[in-house]
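Notebook B, p. 112. Complex prediction, attempt 2.
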Amino acid sequence: MADLRVEVCGIEFKNPVLPAAGPPTWNGKAMVACAEGGAGGIVAKTISTTAAVVPEPCMAQVSRASMLNTELWSELPPEQFINHEYAKAKETGLPLIISMGYTADQIAELAPKVKPFADALELSTHYIGEDPAPMIAAVQAAKDAVDVPVIVKLSPLGREMQAAAQAAKDAGADAIAAINSFGPCLGIDAETGLPLMGSEEGYGWLSGRAIKALSLRCVFDVARTVDLPVFGVGGVSRGLDAIEMFMAGASAVQVCTAAILRGPSVFGKIAQEMDQWLDDHGYASINDVKGLTIKKLKERAFRTTHLPPKLYEELCTGCRLCETSCVYHAILVPDDKAQLDEDLCQGCGLCTTRCPTRALEMP
Ligand SMILES: Cc1cc2nc3c(=O)[nH]c(=O)nc-3n(C[C@H](O)[C@H](O)[C@H](O)COP(=O)(O)O)c2cc1C
């Protein structure tokens, strides 16, 4: 069994799979369910100084394993969390990260009140724009109010991730969470012609599998810019997604959409799949793969020459995925075995990412 324990900002997590701030942690009972589902820690739903008033409908599935939402922060008043919900979450014995937003004044008002429950604070920057100044002020307000680690959660709103992470670090942040949902986006119900979301302009924010490549890039950028731990968030729904997040430089992952669509047992499932993958690949600990891609990128030679993939005929199952998508007609599968014409091959690599058995592999 691989070691999944991680320590982030001095906080020990029994495994690195946490619910992200959102519906899976909308109240105390839901947070307990996350713990029972195998989460290694908890990030509570974002609170602000007043309860949010959310346009409805506010959630829709748009493609496989992906969603649009127009949720803001918690629709519960902050007193409800402070007087009831956090205490219930603390009964789980898991580290509790308390998410809050948004301005320095709001943080200064809320942070002292959540202090008795918080193992860390996570500051959402979702509604304070792309200018780093309000985020810097919010971090300073949090640092003045509490002595627990302060995590800054960045949104991928066209913001220069590296500059934002650097600004957060300079302001005193102890860790970064990346990313929040991506948008604005639009979903349409063709039967009614209406936008799926009830927001004024019909816009929604995208999350889940559809943003995984974006969140990986953001985590990668943050991790190689600042020497701070990163919570990787966005599109994690399987153990392999979490492994990739670690390779991009994450120290833990957070999961929202997959937990909404599949229920809270997803946390334990992802942790168990990570364990299996690490065992299968001979790694003793999740920490052994952390930052691997950052290291490998430095070692990799940049090339523009066409190199054909290696073909391991014995592994080919004749599924034809490679033949179908080879626009150069370099692969044919005449007798249930792929044949590669190296003269026609342009070395694009697509077939190697579609082959389910790795019968094709880039050299
Ligand atoms: C319905 C919904 C509500 C969310 N509410 C919050 C929130 O209150 N605070 C926050 O920081 N992020 C919120 N998020 C963003 C998630 O925490 C997460 O950053 C994002 O969805 C990407 O992760 P995922 O692909 O695992 O969902 C919400 C996401 C969804 C789908």
